[in-house]
Amino acid sequence: MKLVLAIIFVVFCVLGVSSHGIRAKRGLSADEQKKLIDVLTKDRQEFGNKTDKYMFPMKYDMDLEKKADSKPCPESDDNTNVPLQYNSVIQEIYKLERKRGFSASAHFYWPTATKIGCSKSYKCSSPLTERELIIYWTRVSWENQNRSWNLFF
């Protein structure tokens, strides 16, 4: 009987450790989620005040996190994909693009954006003139006029 209880105890410990490890790899911790939402809320409210627009409150969404984690790398011509974090090669490209009026973070400031989900493990890379582009993506969802959109960032 003691042996059976010991085996059950070990199985529960192993399952608990392995599922915790998977969660930590995939998405943001509760503290990281809160910090992200706090920073986004503050920035969005400042932007809304400056532009005289109402910004819908955002919340963290675990379903969007799972979708962001499972999405295959986007095609280069898919303009709904916007990075959350990227390496110095992408940073150089975006610096040039900003001079032409492009902003990769513009979708974070859409007034009707309501949900966000991020993945730490979702990563794409591609070669570019002997240098590697690395981009981490997130997903934002919002609703407007009975339609909803999901974008990867």
UniProtKB/TrEMBL annotation:
Highest taxon listed in the record's lineage: Eukaryota
UniProt keyword terms in alphabetical order: Signal
Residues in the signal sequence: 1-19
Name under which the protein is recorded: SCP domain-containing protein
Source species: Caenorhabditis brenneri (Nematode worm)
